[in-house]
Specification:
Blueprint: E1 4-5, H1 8-28, E2 34-40, H2 44-60, E3 63-69, H3 75-86, E4 93-96, H4 106-112, H5 124-131, H6 140-151, E5 160-164, H7 171-180, E6 184-188, H8 195-199, E7 204-207, E8 225-228, E9 232-233, E10 239-240, H9 245-248, E11 254-255, H10 263-281
Length: about 280
C-alpha cells in the first residue's frame, strides 16, 4: 500500500483563487482587506517568510504593508508602533514576524496586538476562545492542518490523534483543534517515554518536532494519516520533514510531503484570517 499524498500547495492554490474572488467582491463594496507585517532585524528565514506572505497578499488582492525595523529597535518603540496600528482603521491584520531579538519580550508584543487584528491567532484571548470552542482567529498552521484533513474528508471524530511537539505555535493549538473536532488527543514530547507505543496506535499523527527524519515507517500504524509539519534543511541544501517520507508512505493511508505540504497552507490561512477580520470590521 502506498499513501495518498496530500499536497497543501494544490489546496492552497485552490483556496487562494476563491479568496481572490471574495476580495474582488469586497473591494466593490469599498472594503479593502489590509495586512501590516512588522519585520525586525535581518534574519534570512524571516525575510523569506515575509516575501512569501507579501506575494500571497498581492495575488488575492489583500493590501500588504511591510514595516522593516533594525534589530536595535527597543520594546517600547515596537509597542508604540503596535498601538498606532491597533487604531488604524485601514489595518485589519497585524503580524509581528517571530522570532524577535532577545531584548524584546515576545509575549508582551503578542498581547499588545488587538485581539480583533491578531490574524496569527496567538493572542491569549483568541487562544482562550479556541479552547472554549468559540469562533475566533485560529493559529494559521494548525488551522491549515485541519483544513487539509477536511479537504480529503478524513474522519476526525472519535479517532486517536497523536501530536508530537508541544509548541504554542503548532503542537498545543493543533491538538486543541483536533479535540474541538471530537478526536481523542494525546500529546508526546521530549520527555515522553516509549513514544512508539503512542505513535503506532495513532489514527492521525501530527509531527512537529523540528528534527529531520525523526519518525520512520516502523513507528506508524498501518493506514494512519501522517501530517509532517517539520521543515529541516539538510547539508545538501534540500528540505526534509520530521518524517522519513519514503518508508512512512508505505504504511500510511495519507501523508503530507515536505516541501509542498503544510507550509503553503499556513500563509493561506493567514489570508483567510485577514479577510475575515476586514469583514468583521465592516459589519
Amino acid at each position: 500500500m502506498s499513501a495518498e499524498v496530500i499536497y497543501g500547495s494544490e489546496l492552497a492554490e485552490s483556496l487562494r483563487n476563491q479568496m481572490k474572488e471574495e476580495v474582488g467582491e469586497l473591494k466593490n463594496k469599498g472594503i479593502v482587506p489590509g495586512l501590516t507585517v512588522v519585520l525586525i532585524g535581518e534574519d534570512p528565514a524571516s525575510q523569506s517568510y515575509v516575501r512569501g506572505k507579501q506575494k500571497a497578499c498581492d495575488y488575492v488582492g489583500v493590501e500588504s504593508n511591510l514595516i522593516e525595523l533594525p534589530s536595535s529597535t527597543t520594546e517600547k518603540e515596537l509597542l508604540n508602533l503596535i498601538s498606532k496600528l491597533n487604531s488604524d482603521q485601514t489595518v485589519h491584520g497585524i503580524l509581528v514576524q517571530l522570532p524577535l531579538p532577545n531584548h524584546i519580550n515576545e509575549q508582551a508584543i503578542i498581547e499588545a496586538i488587538s485581539p480583533e487584528k491578531d490574524v496569527d491567532g496567538f493572542h491569549p484571548i483568541n487562544i482562550g476562545r479556541m479552547i472554549a470552542g468559540k469562533d475566533t482567529f485560529f493559529p494559521c498552521t494548525p488551522f491549515g492542518i485541519i483544513t487539509m484533513l477536511k479537504s480529503k474528508n478524513i474522519p476526525i471524530e472519535g479517532k486517536k490523534a497523536v501530536v508530537i511537539g508541544r509548541s504554542n505555535i503548532v503542537g498545543k493549538p493543533v491538538g486543541q483543534l483536533l479535540l474541538n473536532e471530537n478526536a481523542t488527543v494525546t500529546y508526546c514530547h521530549s520527555r515522553t517515554e516509549n513514544m512508539q507505543e503512542y505513535t503506532k496506535d495513532a489514527d492521525i499523527l501530527i509531527v512537529a518536532v523540528g528534527r529531520a527524519n525523526f519518525l520512520s515507517g516502523e513507528d506508524i500504524k498501518e493506514g494512519a494519516v501522517v501530517i509532517d509539519v517539520g521543515v529541516n534543511r539538510m547539508e545538501d541544501g534540500k528540505l526534509t520533514g520530521d518524517v522519513e517520507f519514503d518508508s512512512a508512505k508505505e504504511k500510511a493511508a495519507y501523508i503530507t510531503p515536505v516541501p509542498k505540504g503544510v507550509g503553503p497552507m499556513t500563509i493561506t490561512m493567514l489570508l483567510h484570517n485577514t479577510i475575515k477580520s476586514a469583514k468583521q470590521f465592516n459589519q
